[in-house]
Amino acid sequence: MARRYDVVREGFMVKRSQNKKRYTPVNFKQRFFQLTTKALTYYDNDIFEKRKEKGRINLETVHTVEVALETTFAEENTITIHYPFLVGYEECGQDYTLYLNAHSELERLEWIKCLRNVCASNKLKDKYHQGVWTGKRWACCKESSRNSIGCVNCISRTFVSSHIADESDHNKENFNQGAQSSPIMPGGGATPGTPSAKLKEKSMIRPKVVVALYNYKAIETGDLSLEKNAEYEVIDDSQEHWWKVRDNHGNTGFIPSNYVKEKELIGLQQYEWYVHDMSRQRSESLLKHEDKEGCFVVRNSSTKGLYTLSLYTKVPHPHVKHYHIKQNSRAEFYLSEKHCCSSIPDLINYHKHNSGGLASRLKTSPCDRPAPATAGLSHDKWEIDPHELMLHDELGSGQFGVVRRGKWRGSIDVAVKMMKEGTMSEDDFIEEAKVMTKLQHTNLVQLYGVCSKNRPIFIVTEYMRHGSLLNYLRKHEQSLSSNQGLLLDMCIQICKGMAYLERHNYIHRDLAARNCLVGSENIVKVADFGLARYVLDDQYTSSGGTKFPIKWAPPEVLNYTRFSSKSDIWAYGVLMWEVFTCGKMPYGRLKNTEVVERVQKGIILEKPKGCYKEVFDIMRKCWSPSPEQRPSFRNLKDQLVNVSQGILVD
Ligand code: AMP
Q1: Do 406 and 485 fall within a single domain?
Q2: Considering the chain, what is the average pLDDT of its residues?
Q3: Among residues 585, 583, 570, which one has the least CA distance to residue 621?
Q4: Which of 332, 353, 374 is the last residue of a domain?
Q5: Residue 447 C-alpha to ligand 1 middle, in angstroms?
Q6: So which residues are the catalytic ones?
Q7: What's the confidence (pLDDT) of residue 333?
Q8: pLDDT in tens, 533-581
Q9: pLDDT at res. 174
Q10: 452 and 487: one domain?
Q11: Band of residue 191 on the pLDDT scale cut at 50, 70, 90
Q12: Which of 403, 414, 424, 516, when mutated, tests ligand 1's pocket best, judged by the most ligand atoms within 8 Å of its CB?
């Protein structure tokens, strides 16, 4: 079994039997697939301990990953196999093809994308057969030689993003599915990025079309408004966060790239009821907050590739029920076996009219869900004119001064940190702010920009309605302490944000519950990353100072002020402890000197009351004395998700 953190993608798919002698009737079996960077392996069961490996393809042998033709088998009661794709590989000098069937178009595209990514350095073939070999001829071109090279040009990825492993929800990779043009193969033909490759790409690629997931109001000249569900043609996607697009009236302008999704990859995202990877706990809070009978959402299950329906009902008392959306051997979706549909939207539609065994008929889904923050308030904008800010009430005050709620140009909610003069090296920070506006992740508080022309300087960020996580934990201790699932979910969210920073080689230096914020729908985000570097106050920056966060610091920071992502990991362990104690002060009333003594002796914090042993074991890993022995955030995130799957129900 692969180690969890090696797994690139996993989930169920329907596999066509590879019986080499008999070609009809064809057997299709549901298998659990696991893709790592080394192999694609399939099992007969998804239950971890009971998994029995049924087969494996060494990825070095793969030469083709392409969409296949749908096949209808009249012999078998006219079964049509949907969303097929194929993986061609070579073993002992012989070619084999594995035919797989995903459960949706989106899933098929994502499996193909992942497989192509892990095989990016392979020598790939130019041509392939889209249809199956029937025993006498190829179903696609009717060619009767089994060894013929193929009738269709392979289609390859055209833009390889640098952050394949980025889970920040907006997938920037695209490939030209369905185009019948000459191939631009990774590892073969023109090297992507070279002028000749670019020319080829330009002349052969159909324009990329995206669909707006949210409305967006252009405020700055040069930007373009988006209308939810409308289509736009992408003119320039060379910048990560702002793309130039054309609407169907011919108007062009910049739009935030996280507000759109490629048309071919949009899948369920066009539906109001689909909430992507919202956790069970957050979906429960969201539905309970709406408090409407029959209110529902569909979310990704914690088992990759599967979906869960979460439904609110008041009968016999207000609660949320969770149902796995299952599939039968014909790849049809169902909640109750009697009512199967060929797609999830059809299934939802069916249950909107018939409860069909559910606690209630599906009625509404939460509306007016907040749109995500944009990376800066407009493209290439990080300097903000203070006259465009309307300042409202005070949200709190911290190390750097007062924070106030505000509105930019009367439309976007912001938080404005008014920096006390003399507290930070301003010029260096202003330079850094340009980079920081480009860091964008669902679990990081977005920096919109700065007002740097006047004093005091203002730091303008995304507004988070519930304020600091520390206060939130303390305020809601009663309800939260009995909901370990919600506490674990908060830790997972923070870990995702930190894993993004780690991937971008960005060190936080002051990670603690006081520096995380809570927004609507119980979203938790990390704030103030990297700010500690620009503080001028010795009491804060030197490990002997009274304001230095000693209780969150590992031995190497206490001894040599050596910060790294691994010192952030130590602080993250302490932050987990804060979460599971609902905001207690680590080490209670111990003085800083006493804390340092304890930490040097390896005596760290005790297990919070009611905290699962598995969760505390993870905290302890964060407190390994040697930084090298501590896990990475990426690894930690997988461990936390595993624990949550093990101790909580999906
Ligand atoms: P800080 O200076 O970052 O420690 O912020 C002081 C307090 O202001 C925090 O404890 C929060 O209650 C509040 N605050 C800071 N940033 C935000 C924000 N982006 N949204 C809402 N409240 C905030």
Answers
A1: no
A2: 85
A3: 570
A4: 353
A5: 13
A6: 510
A7: 93
A8: 888 877 777 777 878 899 999 999 999 999 999 999 999 999 999 999 9
A9: 31
A10: no
A11: very low
A12: 403
Q: What is the CATH number of the domain that holds 236?
A: 2.30.30.40
Which single residue is written with the structure tokens 């201790």? Answer: 477
In total, how many domains does the chain have? 5
The answer to whether residues 457 and 501 belong to one domain is: no
| pLDDT (tens digit per residue) in 72-129 | 655 444 455 678 899 999 888 788 889 998 887 778 888 998 898 888 888 888 888 8
Residues 212, 277, single domain; the answer is: no
Classify residue 49: in a domain, yes or no. yes
Report the alpha-carbon distance of residue 583 to residue 476 in Å, rounded.
10
- The rounded Å distance from CA 639 to ligand 1 centre is 30
Report if residue 370 sits inside a domain.
no
User: Alpha carbon 206 to chain centroid distance?
Assistant: 27
- Specify the CATH number for the domain of residue 28: 2.30.29.30
C-alpha 388, offset from chain centre: 33
Q: Are residues 495 and 635 in the same domain?
A: yes
**Closest-CA residue to 17 (of 96, 70, 122, 112):** 96
Does 357 score more than 60 pLDDT?
yes
User: Do 10 and 92 have their domain in common?
Assistant: yes
Which of 432, 462, 492 corresponds to the end of one domain? 462
Q: Is 415 in the pocket of ligand 1 (CB under 6 A)?
A: yes
Nearest C-alpha neighbor of 622 from the set 555, 556, 568: 568
Nearest CA to ligand 1 atom 23: 467
CA gap 630, 68 in Å, rounded:
44
Tell me the pLDDT tens digit for each residue of 575-601: 999 999 999 999 999 999 999 999 999
Atom nearest to 465 CA in ligand 1: 21
| CB of 395 sitting under 6 A from ligand 1 | yes
Residue 456 forms part of a structural domain:
yes
Question: Six-digit token pair at 226?
Answer: 């988006």
pLDDT, tens digit, for every residue of 620-629? 999 999 999 9
What would the two tokens of residue 179 be? Answer: 């185009």
- Residue 20's SS3 state is coil
The answer to the question of whether 54 is labelled as a binding residue is: no
Residue 301: give the domain boundaries.
271-353
Asked if the structure places residue 321 within a domain, the reply is yes
